Amino acid sequence: MTSLPAPSAKKLGLVIDLDTCVGCQACATNCKEWNTSGHMAPLPDHHPYSAGVEGVWFNRVHSYEAGDGEDGRTVHFPRSCLHCETPACVTVCPTGASYKRAEDGIVLVNTDICIGCQLCAWACPYGAREFDEDQGVMKKCTLCVDRIYNEHIPEERRVPACVSTCPANARHFGDLGDPDSDVSKLVAERGGMELMPELGYKPVNRYLPPRRAPKPDAGPPKDAGPLPSQITNPLLRWVDKVLSR
Amino acid sequence: MPADGGATDRIVYSAPIGDEVKTTTCYMCACRCGIRVHLKDGRVRYIEGNPDHPVNRGVLCGKGSAGIMTQYSPARLQAPLKRVGPRGSGEYAEISWDEALETATGWLKHIRETDPKRLALFTGRDQSQSLTGFWAAQFGTPNFAAHGGFCSVNMAAGGLYTIGGSFWEFGEPDWERAKYLMIFGVAEDHDSNPIKIGLASMKKRGAKIVSVNPVRTGYSAISDEWVGIRPGTDGLFIMALIHELIRTDKVDGEFLVRYTNAPWLVVRNPGGADDGLFARDADGKPLAWDRARGAIAADTADLSPVLVGEFTLPDGRVAKPVFNLMAERYLGEEYAPEAVAERCGFSAERIRRLAAEIADVAFNQTITLDIPWTDVWGRKHETMVGRPVAFHAMRGISAHSNGFHTCRALHLLQMILGAVDTPGSWRYKSPFPRPIPPGPGPAGKGAKPNTPLAGNILSFTHGPDDLLVEDDGTPLRIDHSFSWEAPLGLHGMMHTVIGHAAKGDPYKIDTLFMFMANMAWNSAMNPLETIDCLTQQDENGDYVIPHVIYSDAYFSETVPYADLILPDTTYLERWDAISILDRPIGSAHGPGDAIRQPVVEPDRNVRQFQTVLIELGARLGLPAFVKEDGSPRFKDYPDYLTNHQRTPGVGPLAGWRGEDGSKKGVGEPNPNQLQRYIENGCFWRHHLAPEESYFKHANATYLANSKAMGMQGQSNQIVLQIWSEPLQKFRLAAEGHGTKQPPEALRERVRTYCDPLPFWYAPLEQQQHDTEPFPLSAVTQRPMAMYHSWGSMNAWLRQIHGSNKLYMSRERAAADGLAQDDWVWVESRSGRVKAQLTLMEGVNRDTVWTWNAIGKRAGAWMLSPDAAESQRGFLLNHVISEWLPSQAGPRLANADPVTGQAAWYDLRVKVTKVAPGEEGVTAPHPDVLEPPPDMPDPPDILRFNAGGQKP
Amino acid sequence: MNPAPSIIFFTVASGAGYGLLFWMGLLRPLGLVPQTAGFGVLTVGIALALTMLGLLSSTAHLGRPERAWRALSQWRSSWLSREGICAIATFAPAGLFFLALAGQSEWLALPTGLLAAAGAAVTVWCTGMIYASLPTIRQWHHPLVAPGYLLFGAFSGAALLATLAAFWGAAMAPAAIAAVLGAVAFVLKRAYWASVDAGPPLATMETATGLGFIGKVRVLDPPHTETNYLLREMAFRIGRVHAAKLRRIASVAGFAVPAALLLLALLTGGAFAGVFAVAAAALVTVGLLAERWLMFAEATHTVALYYGAGEHAP
């Protein structure tokens, strides 16, 4: 039913570290290659070798600049389904195809019954819904539901494809409903952010903000050594310096 | 109650990924990560990083993860082709392999029997240079290289002639321990995943990362401090840092004395034949001035040298220690922060602050490891003490005509800080360090018909005698590498080959044989000029380059200009060796190498280039490729990898040697060697013992073991070279000493740029034309998802980067009356391109840039002619010139005067708004390329699904 | 939001159809419209045709129209599901109403007409709520949106009814109702625009990315260089000048002028009334198409923020 289940204790989700994401797109393409033959297969690409190429991707990496000039920062920003606790994409669905799992909080689409009305895409503030115009059904991030419980995959790699491939260790997976989980601790430590909390969707995924290095002092530190005026010939210091192997 | 979609959703939680998994090595870029390829019904289902692999440790980048689309691209060539229309027309006929090989053999046999140097073999982004270079030497032509001269020879030469290693392949930051990392000109760059893994781990530890780069993307984006330098001024900044460190006495004197040539005495005899050479004893050992004993051999264990002063040697000559000469130079006013600040684009205070920061970490935050080790003098040390400041640099420094000296300056900075192969600093990757320079001079002199060249073609000049020149100074190589134009041209100069060949400078060639080099597009400095050369005809209507053979797996822009196409396999269909003889995958933790194995069968009439080359070698009767009876010595490439021995016991692969596979490095061929690699995930590595892990240039245990494993021929200390004597030898020749003399037109150039100490000069191109009308520097960066690859045949990657814009500082644009999305002309002294503008904050105010190699020629790569790549993508290459501005004397490459490195970052441009009506499509826009015959029709909808659960 | 023709046509046509049905169901028992079988069949027939065409048109928007029946299952949470159920449920009394009118069965016409009227009102309310319930689009998530749908449906239905009735020389009541509703619609739409224009954006690039603590956020590079589904659907932008022009067309030509024409029809009566009513109905159609187009074109979705295509703060 597209009414939401009672809040699950287990809230599987991602924690994305904007401080280390270098924007390499590994999460995007690895997600694509996993999922195009995965639970929601295929993820089609229209006009793949001509103008207007356009495909279904569950993960898209934006690049932003925040702040002005040298004081600003370039931030790479992967965007995918946040597996919200109160997702309107589920409640607006007229068919029940869009649903949130009671057992782990994953938001999925049953593509066998989706009619492709696309209302869920309108209802998602984060742009997580990806319409497969070829099959006429809505698709989305599955949190790699066909990986994370997959006993054919070594336990330590039973995480979403985007997490296992990320070279910059910018993606973490776990139970955000468990305050003692590694991801919850990371969120607590680093001030993990909810995106657009004002909309009330209660996203499970969190973003770790870029760390701001303290602005260095303008001048040289106090122990920077003698000022130019104090040294007539710096080389002279070396004449009597006793050095040995 | 309405049904829940979840109740009926068919989720298969625990299906096997595929029915088979094979390991191999990625080739989507030059990083050489280990991959696990999952196959389902013979098709690639999923490619992931191999968790056991030392390079990528289980991760895989955006390109590697898109390998499926490279494997199944419709742009894959289908069969051998011979040209039947004019070059460029795309008119081809499919031929058999037999005919293809016969044709090639016919051309090549004639060349070899008459004048072998008339074959030019250039192999682009080749990872099998130990074979291709060896093959060229066997053929007898000196005209061989890969694309290193275009890419990063300044880094390689700068490093190998200074510290016996270099950034990227021959060294890496101590990712586990460094507390401060400064990277120069590293966008997405060599090497990809290790840098990402390393940066993330450093950030986790709270280390500081400073990125010096005109553009704030990629690694600069996540650095703690971005220094938005003006392109080409990195050397000034580095030398200003050195200035500050010496001025404030933040110098690791002990390190300099122990491990560098800082105490060595340099003869001061202006005008003399020995000026600037090291003072040596009767045994040829360099001398130092000992406080108590005067001039003694510099390698004396208990040396206590004086570093400053002028000393009279026993033979009456006057000499100064290297340190003294170095300090004098960098204390000069021209390297004071105030003097360089404006040119670099930031304040003198900032330079001083950064110098102080570096010094603070190096000298106040040292790392001590309780690891005993023994130095080359046999002395035991209880601990390893390190200065945790690391540096890494790549093409932002490399691709300038002052890059060699800039790179050397950076290594000097490391030495001054005592931060070479110590805990927390930059470390050598095995098998480096190697002697400085690492090998003998390059082969290529005395090329004769039917005769192999002895030695390596791409090797190391020690002085004028090693140059490949005629007596009058005329280059012996078609690319002019190792001539007076590029005396340290270690990687060749691929960017000049076609231009010189067309002009017959210094001679005409017969056959241009290329592999994996998109020379008619993004791999050329100026593509349209290159195409002109490839299609130029003489008065008889014959092409001035009579034969062009090209091997590539895809329909690139270069394919239509070849006479004979040898279609290669994809990276998942081939054998390869990431060879210890070439560019292995060693790390600071020990040597290693790797292989590629075919994980899918080709479904086309294609053969891998290396196997073809080996067969050609046999057909031509090249001695190393035939048995005594003239029959082929090797069946194919894997056979060669297993059984070829370069010297007794040393072959392409170092692991599992010896008949039973028990030997490392040196041992007889092992018939099961490739199988052993496959069983181990397609790689081999040897772990260094803790006592071998640092100070490798002076670590007795490391050096002895390295020699025993055949990694190098000696185990002496590798003394880091601040003062470079080989350079001084070239300079002396330019001053008139010796029999090998540069041509008059080059004399002053050689004298100036073969400076034994690094110095900064404005990039050559900028010195030689009026830059006033061209106020902006223009550079490119590789986007991470397209790094070190140029194929837009990948349906996924081309969605991420299908077109490119010109990026400009928002502030600068406002001042110049330009706005977001304006269409502009980007004009240099040699041409103009049209592009669309986008504005940003994080770019040096005097710099514009774009993503490289996104723009494609219409029709190539099996993209429809209206594809974004040709409509809204552009190549900056069109405004880069291959040659320096015309002047008296020979035509000279737009390249580093020492190494021949292509100087594509020296470009200066102006940017102006297009006339109304010119918007919408980028320019230049050469004719649409016609695909070869029998290429598959690209689909309009791609529904790739290799075994999905809901088809 | 992308003003998809299928949805615009659907909402305008079904709104008018349900409006017509509503007023027939309500006014006929009161004797305020012609009581003949011919008028009844024509009017209710047109109403049914419009609603059915509208529904058909809406399925054109579906990726899998053959599965449309599945949309009826989630009435507990989904306004779209509710709309579908109500629309279908309304066909039952509406169909019977049609038959009753054709067969002159007054005993059946009264209850079925009233039930159809009620069904029409609820269906249009549901349509309005589909939009009004979306928290992602502030121009839709607004208290005047669902009432607006109801009002515009009633207005266009009444105008249509007046036009039809004019041919029977009996347009007085529907024309009067339509004139009043037109005036109210004009006021409501103006009030709505004033309200949404003054309202702050739901979110900004700074809150959408969480990066506001660093400073102003600007796009450097989009994830892909070509466009995509989300951008085409949800980042539609309309120029301010163009929007202002369309607003004038919608409110003046669509609401104010028809109201005035209908008033004229009331005053003149006879053949002139017919001419005025026809003109009014035509203008209402044009105006409502413009209104509905704007309803989409001016709606801003938060996802556009990620592409730097968000609205600017007023």
From TrEMBL, chain A:
The UniProt record lists the keyword Metal-binding: yes
Keyword line: 4Fe-4S, Iron, Iron-sulfur, Metal-binding
Pfam families: Fer4_11
InterPro entries, sorted: 4Fe4S_Fe-S-bd (IPR017896), 4Fe4S_Fe_S_CS (IPR017900), ET_IronSulfur_Cluster-Binding (IPR050954)
Domain of life: Bacteria
Family matches, as SUPFAM superfamilies: 4Fe-4S ferredoxins
4Fe-4S ferredoxin-type domain location: 12-43, 72-103, 105-134
Name listed for the protein in its UniProt record: 4Fe-4S dicluster domain-containing protein
Species the sequence originates in: Neoroseomonas terrae
UniProtKB/TrEMBL annotation, chain C:
Top-level taxonomic group: Bacteria
Top-level taxonomy: Bacteria, Pseudomonadati, Pseudomonadota, Alphaproteobacteria, Acetobacterales
A Pfam family this chain is assigned to: DmsC
Entries under PANTHER family matching the protein: ANAEROBIC DIMETHYL SULFOXIDE REDUCTASE CHAIN YNFH
Transmembrane segments: 7-27, 39-63, 84-102, 108-132, 144-162, 168-188, 246-265, 271-290
Listed name of the protein: Dimethyl sulfoxide reductase anchor subunit
Record keywords: Membrane, Transmembrane, Transmembrane helix
InterPro entries attached to this UniProt entry: DmsC
The keyword Repressor belongs to this UniProt entry's keyword annotation: no
